[in-house]
Specification:
This protein has 289 residues and is of the alpha+beta class. The protein folds into two domains: 53 residues; 220 residues, 2-Layer Sandwich (Heat Shock Protein 90), CATH 3.30.565.10. It contains seven helices and five strands. It has a five-stranded mixed β-sheet with strand order 1-2-3-5-4, with helices on one face. A hairpin with a 2-residue loop joins strand 4 and strand 5. Helix 1 runs antiparallel to helix 2. It is elongated, with a radius of gyration of 29 Å. One of its GO terms (molecular function) is identical protein binding. This is Sensor histidine kinase NatK-like C-terminal domain-containing protein. It comes from Lysinibacillus macroides. Keywords: Membrane, Transmembrane, Transmembrane helix.
Length: 289
Amino acid sequence: MLLLPFKIQLLLIFIGSLTLIMFYLNVFFLGVQDNKALTTANFFIQIIYIVLVVLAVSLFIKGLQQMQMIRQKEIAQQQFFDYMQALEQVNTDMQKFRHDYINILMSLQDYIENKDLQGLQHYFYTDIMQMEQQTLFQSKMIGTLENLEVVELKGLLSSKLLFANRLQQKLVIEIPQTISSVRMNLIDLTRVLGILIDNAIEASVEIANSVVHVAILHSHEQAVVIIIDNPLQDANLNISTIFDYHASSKGEGRGIGLVNVEEILKNYPNVTLNTRIDKQYFIQELQIF
């Protein structure tokens, strides 16, 4: 539920009270229309009322715009915090790796001295690589975000990398070109992408060795294309019904996200969402012109 600031609430009360007063004044003046002075007074009162209402509505709109700006700044700060948290996590993991580096080398000594190449290969790929590849992968993924100059999106993707990591789900992000701006309100865009990426991650968790891909590209001029794909478990999924309320393959009461996406995108004639299935992959392509 949206809670309006106190000043805006007072403004709405003022408009309502003023309208109520004008209603009773008009009822009164209807009975004395023959009095020229009162009719003139009524005319000027109506003019003053209109001016006050226009002024009040202007202040109301300005207040809502300020609320929107504050909300956007809060989201930007939160997304930046998420990005910094992801960097801190990767840095901590890398420090652990460096700390264990000497110990890891020492653990190889016996295999080398005994010329046990087969045992060395098994130990290296089964134990060492399995233990450290997630840290190296996370570091690489955070590095790919350098081409993304939109802080809100950088923070969102960082938080999704951490979310996927907690679920032990591989998430690959590709941003080959510099993305400095997007022609869409960033609050709405982060909401849409958050839903789409969460859906892709949650749908892939139960599929062995699955990978979720997110790519952000420039198509032409300033147009941006965001592609999200994940392996599909249900080959018979009907994509014509996934935007229906409560339609979900993830359980009862969880099919609201895509409905919200559709409602948000209705406000953007320059944005299209294409959904398709290709070779057992569920693909969502968001085009922002």
